[in-house]
Design brief:
The complex is a heterodimer of chains A (269) and B (248).
Chain A (H helix, E strand, L loop, with lengths): L1 H7 L5 H32 L14 H10 L2 H33 L1 H14 L8 H8 L3 H25 L3 H9 L5 H37 L5 H10 L3 H29 L5
Chain B lengths: L2 E14 L2 E14 L3 E5 L6 H9 L6 E6 L9 E4 L11 H5 L10 H14 L15 H14 L4 E5 L7 H18 L2 E6 L2 H7 L2 E6 L4 E7 L14 H12 L3
Parallel strand pairs in B: 3-7, 3-8, 5-6, 6-7
Antiparallel strand pairs in B: 1-2, 1-4, 8-9
Helix pairs in contact in B: 3-4
Classes of the chains: A mainly alpha (269), B alpha/beta (248).
Chain lengths: 269, 248
């Protein structure tokens, strides 16, 4: 049997073989996920771990429904998304601006190089004490921490991308009369650096998500905070609800970002 | 005849890592309006540098360069690079319209002019493509259209066909001859290909030596259309080849 199958394979067109391969990996992925859920359910069901410590996946939908019904889920999600969105936009905007400036100007690069070396190694979360002193345990503090985390990633991506812009293309702009910095910025630097900037933004998207949870664990209302509340009541099923919520939200945001990125970079072969 | 480009005693010295390289010295050249002049020479003799000075990408160290144009065009001189240098993030039509931005034309007018320039090089139907979807020959045609779109009086061309295969190259050479005859533009065409220079231009200037200077300046009075292997040109080609091999 195995022999006949092998002999049949070359008869399939390359594309249908690729489709079979894709179906095969989807199937394997689904099987893996199912196995994971089964093991997860079995561990508390078989008494290997106290169900209070680890609720099985079958317990999750009920907990999820009660969180929805109480309105807590929506409140936590909107809270987190608003810190996330505002922090991301502020951090990314500043990161692109400073990165592009230091990438275009040698003077700006030299001027900032030591400051960058000093501040860069400080993790975004190490700003939490100042965030709380300056803003209190408020959404502003979370926004600040998120913005700091995002800033560095986007700054380095933008700086590197602008430094790497093809000199030949800059000459094209000059040859056609665009010699002022803002003309070169708009005609060449920004579009040419866009692929690199987008790579940084995508990394920042993930980093910011981590910063959201971390900032909220300090007490700012949102997903992380609701999770900590639930864990202090040993409501581990609710903790899992929020862990899965974070995974789902991040998955959606990252997919939306990819769609936007593919459109922005549709000029690439 | 009035000259559109006047070069007097042009010298250019580069300084890189503390080392001075003199690329051009004492170059005199006067180019009448509407002429098709080819500049021939080995690589490194300063041909491209000359074009870069004319368009303002490089500064002369000595001498004077003047481009006298009749119109008040925003850009009287345009350059076609050796590699097409299209901006990959712009569609073909927007690449061609690049030089028109900042000219005060509306976007619709710029696009119309760009499509018109694409029509001149025979690529109007590719206006909506991205550069990566074009062949090497098509890219270079778009690059030519980009230069033509600004309606320059002088077209500078820096070995524009040297990276193309023989068939695309010959097609573009004939196209360029036609465009020159139709538009009456002044063309300064840099090449290291002697046959190309003799086939295209009505005057050939040979740069040789280090620093580079003009060693031959010859008018070609063959009628057009020309033939690629016209035996009447072989003496001139041999003469030029000899000068490039043994400058001075």
């Amino acid at each position: 049997m195995a022999l006949t199958q092998t002999a049949d394979l070359p008869a399939l067109s390359a594309s249908s073989r690729a489709r079979l391969g894709a179906l095969g990996s989807i199937g394997l992925g689904a099987a893996g996920l199912l196995a994971f859920l089964l093991i997860w359910q079995a561990v508390p069901a078989l008494g290997l771990v106290n169900p209070m410590m680890l609720p099985g996946p079958l317990a999750i939908p009920t907990a999820f429904r009660s969180e929805i019904d109480s309105g807590m889920w929506l409140k936590a999600v909107t809270g987190s998304l608003s810190h996330y969105g505002i922090g991301l936009v502020i951090g990314a905007a500043l990161g692109v601006a400073v990165g592009v400036l230091t990438g275009m100007s040698r003077v700006a690069e030299d001027l900032t190089s030591w400051v960058v070396r000093l501040l860069r190694p400080i993790p975004g979360l190490a700003w939490a004490p100042f965030a709380i002193i300056w803003f209190g345990v408020t959404p502003k503090a979370a926004v600040f921490i998120i913005a700091v985390s995002v800033f560095w990633i986007v700054f380095f991506a933008a700086h590197g991308a602008v430094r790497g812009v093809d000199r030949d293309l800059l000459e094209v702009a000059e040859a056609f009369g665009f010699r002022r910095a803002h003309e070169k910025l708009l005609k060449i630097y920004l579009p040419a650096a866009m692929p690199g900037i987008l790579v940084g933004l995508r990394t920042a998207l993930g980093q910011a998500w981590m910063a959201v949870v971390a900032a909220e664990i300090f007490g700012v209302p949102g997903l992380g905070n609701r999770m900590i509340e639930a864990s202090s009541l040993l409501a581990t099923d609710i903790v899992v609800v929020y862990m899965l919520t974070m995974a789902a939200l991040y998955g959606i945001l990252d997919s939306l970002f990819l769609v936007a990125q593919n459109w922005l970079l549709r000029w690439k072969a | 005849m009035e000259s559109v480009i006047d070069i007097r005693g042009l010298g250019l010295t580069f300084e890189r890592d503390g080392r001075r390289t003199e690329v051009l010295r004492g170059l005199d050249l006067s180019i009448p309006r509407g002429a098709f002049v080819a500049i021939v020479g080995a690589s490194g003799v300063g041909k491209s540098t000359l074009l870069r000075v004319l368009i303002g990408l490089a500064k002369a160290s000595a001498g004077q360069v003047s481009v006298t144009t009749r119109s008040a065009a925003r850009q009287p001189v345009a350059l076609v690079f050796q590699d097409s240098r299209l901006l990959p993030w712009r569609r073909v039509v927007d690449n061609v319209a690049l030089g028109l931005e900042g000219s005060g034309l509306s976007k619709i007018e710029r696009r119309a002019r760009a499509v018109e320039a694409l029509r001149v090089v025979g690529l109007a139907e590719l206006a909506g493509r991205w550069p990566y979807q074009l062949s090497g020959g098509q890219r270079q045609r778009v690059s030519l259209a980009r230069a033509l779109a600004v309606e320059p009086e002088v077209l500078l061309m820096d070995e524009p066909f040297s990276a193309l295969d023989a068939i695309s190259r010959e097609g573009l050479q004939d196209e360029l001859t036609r465009i020159w005859r139709e538009t009456g533009k002044t063309i300064l065409f840099v090449t290291h290909d002697i046959e190309e220079a003799v086939y295209l231009a009505d005057r050939v200037v040979v740069l040789a030596g280090a620093p580079g200077r003009a060693v031959i300046d010859r008018t070609i009075d063959a009628s057009r259309p020309r033939h690629r292997d016209d035996p009447a040109h072989s003496a001139l080609i041999a003469d030029i080849r000899g000068h490039i091999a043994r400058p001075g």
